[in-house]
Write a structure and sequence with these properties.
The protein has 126 residues and is mostly beta strands. The protein is built from no helices and 11 strands. The strands form 2 sheets. Strands 2, 4, 5, 6, 9, 10 and 11 form a 7-stranded mixed sheet that branches. The protein has a 4-stranded antiparallel sheet with strand order 1-3-8-7, with no helix packed on it. A hairpin with a 4-residue loop joins β7 and β8. The protein starts with a strand and ends with a strand.
Amino acid sequence: QVQLRESGGGWVEVGGALTLSCADSGRTFYDRTMGWFRQAPGKGREFVASINWSGSRTQYADPVKGRFTISRDNAESTVHLQMNNLKPEDTAIYYCAAGPAGIRGTFSPAASYDYWGQGTQVTVSS
C-alpha cells in the first residue's frame, strides 16, 4: 500500500531555498513515476515536476524551470524537490503524488497519479 508523507515545508524569504521530501512507506516506490503539485489559495492544483521510475527523466512546469530540481532515492523510497530562488508566487501547499505501478514516463496531469500525500505548506515572504 502506498502512503506518502511530505516534509520540509516552511517559511522562507524571497530568493531563498527549501527542499521538500516525500517518503513512501509502501514497497513499490521504485516502480512508480513520482510527481509534485501545488495549490495556492483560491487556485486549482497545478503540476510542478515529475520524475520517472529510475530518475533518468524529469519534467518541469515552465514557472519553475531552472529553479526547482526533482530527484529520487529508490533505496530510501523518497522523492525530493529542491527549490531555489523562491518567489512569492511559489507560495502554496505542495503535494507529492505517485503514479500507477509499472507505467513508465513522466506525467503532468493530476489525473495520471493514483496516490497523494497530505501536503506541506510553503510560504515565500517578501
